[in-house]
Amino acid sequence: MLLSLLKFAQGFLKVTLTGSYPERFLNLCIRRNLLIWNLCPNKDAGGYDFCISLRGFQSAKDLMKKTHTTVKIRKKCGLPFFLHRYRGRKLFALGLLICICLLWNCSGYVWKIEVNGTETLTQDMILTWLKQQQTYFGTPKKEISCSEIETKLRKDFDVIAWTSVKLEGTKLEIDVEENLPENHIADLPKEGAWDLVAAEEATIDSIYTRRGTPLVQKGTVVSKGAVLISAKLEILDDNGEIAKENYVVSDGDVVGIVSRFYENTLPIHYQKKVYTGSEHTTHMLQIGKFHCLLGKKTGAYSACETTVTDRQLELLPNLFLPVHLYTTRQKEYVYQPADYTKREAEAVLTAQWDAFLEKFKQKGIPIIVKNVKIEKDKENFKIRGRIQAKVPIVKYQPAVRSEGQNTREEPDRLE
Amino acid sequence: MKKKHRLNPNDTNRESRTRERLAEGLELPKDVSCGVVVVTVTGRRSLVLENYRGIVAFDDDHIVIQTKECKVIVHGCRLKVDYYTNEEMKIVGLIHQISYEV
After folding, report:
1. Of residues A30, A37, A38, nearest to B86 (C-beta)
2. How many angstroms separate the CA atoms of A161 and B15, rounded?
3. Tens-digit pLDDT profile for chain A (415 aa)?
4. CA dist., res. A154 & res. A123, Å (int)
5. Residue B77 covered by a domain
6. Which residue range(s) make up the domain with A362?
7. How many beta carbons lie within 10 A of that of residue B74, not counting itself?
8. Which of A69, A276, A280, B1 is deepest in the core (most CB within 10 A)?
């Protein structure tokens, strides 16, 4: 590869050698340390075809006379000949130089931002935040501090547990890892006397008390507002009677089995979207802030489905440039009155039911029982479902102190 | 005009034999001490030659190379010299046979 580049830079000739004894010419050439390559016999000319460097050819001219041979140049290759051929095209050379300078300049800015790993956060949220931090498309790379962005991201977004920001070419790549969904109980009050009560009607599945007195156990059915872990700590004397009552901020995890109901209706008669088959595609070129529409303008349809695809110019891997090609595809449709068949309605309603269940899965809530039923009346298809899930059911409520007792508040609390 | 002194073939042979013995005794490589041809063949499609004097004849199906002691003849088809320098040459193509001719 390097040798080929060197040969190209120095220039070389593809020649045909003829004469009474061409082998002598070749042998004399190598005695003078002239490189000959791609040597092969040429039966038509009765000699040899080979390649020789430009400098070598010039120094071998006297050998032709000496050996009574003739060299015919078939092709001139290499940079010296290329430059000589295009010596008149100064503007082309200038344009090439300007193009290289522009590319060099463009490579010093960020032209693409890629955000990976987001679940609850969206790419737009991160991009808006980056814009506020003066890091956006077109920001010079030397002004970007990746470690600073990482620190600020973790600081400003509590949900982000880990982040990595790196610059590759003209691309800023942000990888984030979000915290696992937590089954948050209500915020723990700092001081006072607080009971943990049931936030809704449930059957207790598990109870772990860290502070306070548990009043329920596994299997207990509790109604909304029932005290689960009391703030009152009773200190008994030797006779087993209450000597003192301390009030604390109760703390613990109580998981209850609760029921959730789901109901949805789907009208039998609806307006069906029917595609007419008519399509229109337009392209728009964007270079920096300048837009240029290629082809006819769209918007001829009264009702259409529009899809816009953005393709950015990537000259080399990770070397993105501020050149975008937007392809807008419009598909015309009309609404026609139609009725859902039973199978279609079931498919639509089941998809909505699955989306309802998915919300629980995303929060990490286990579902233990699920029942669903689809019915049809005159106007609608109806879906009714019930699930039983294990959810944290606690919330804080100020404790009611007993009258006439020797009570005091615990000064310290466990963290 | 200075008259060229032509060596007797017997003297030449004697000199070369002496050199060979000396090289064997000193365990020197023969290509360095005696200038014998070195032929390196890679598979059937590539052959590199060192210590030669020049090309005597070259065709599609054979190449004759003059060395110090003998002629090396390479038979094959679509033979081509990839590069040809004062030090070494590389022959490519489909090689059928390599023979030596005194």
Report:
1. A30
2. 85
3. 788 899 999 999 999 999 988 999 999 999 999 999 999 999 888 899 999 999 999 999 889 888 999 999 999 999 999 988 888 888 988 999 999 999 999 999 999 999 999 888 898 999 999 999 988 889 999 999 999 999 999 999 988 989 999 999 999 999 999 886 555 555 667 778 889 999 999 999 999 998 889 999 999 999 999 999 998 888 888 888 888 888 888 888 999 999 999 999 999 999 999 999 988 888 999 998 898 888 777 567 888 899 999 999 998 888 999 999 999 898 999 999 999 999 999 999 999 999 999 988 888 888 988 999 999 888 899 999 999 999 988 888 888 877 655 555 555 444 3
4. 16
5. yes
6. 261-269+340-392
7. 22
8. A69
Q: How far apart are the C-alpha atoms of A57 and A329, rounded to whole Å? A: 61
End-to-end Cα spacing for chain B: 33
From the list A33, A35, A48, the residue facing B58 with the nearest CB is A48
Tokens of A331: 């598909």
- Give CA–CA dist A221/A36, Å, rounded: 98
CATH code, domain with B66: 2.60.40.2000
Q: Which of A334, A360, A379 is the C-terminal boundary of a domain?
A: A334
The answer, for B94 touching chain A at a CB cutoff of 8 Å, is no
Here the ipTM equals: 0.79
Q: Tell me the nearest-neighbour CA distance from A43 into chain B, angstroms.
A: 8
Q: What is the DSSP string of A138-153?
A: T-BGGG--HHHHHHHH
Q: Say whether A41 and B86 touch across the interface (CB within 8 A).
A: no
d(Cα A224, Cα A395) in Å, to the nearest integer?
10
Can you give the three-state secondary structure of chain B, one letter per residue?
CCCCCCCCHHHHHHHHHHHHHHHHHHCCCHHHHCCCCEEEEECCCEEEEECEEEEEEECCCEEEEEECCCEEEEEEEEEEEEEECCCEEEEEEEEEEEEEEC
- Answer yes or no: is A92 within a domain: no
Contacts of B53 in chain A (CB under 8 A): 27
Give the max Cα distance, chain A.
134
Indicate whether A230 belongs to any domain.
yes
Report yes or no: B84 and A27 within 8 Å, Cβ to Cβ.
no
Give the rounded distance of the alpha carbon of A353 from its chain centre. Answer: 28
User: d(Cα A303, Cα A378) in Å, to the nearest integer?
Assistant: 31
Answer for the pair A221, A167: CB distance below 8 angstroms, yes or no.
no
pLDDT in tens, A184-234: 555 667 778 889 999 999 999 999 998 889 999 999 999 999 999 998 888
Q: What angle do CA A342, A346, A350 make, to 5 degrees?
A: 175
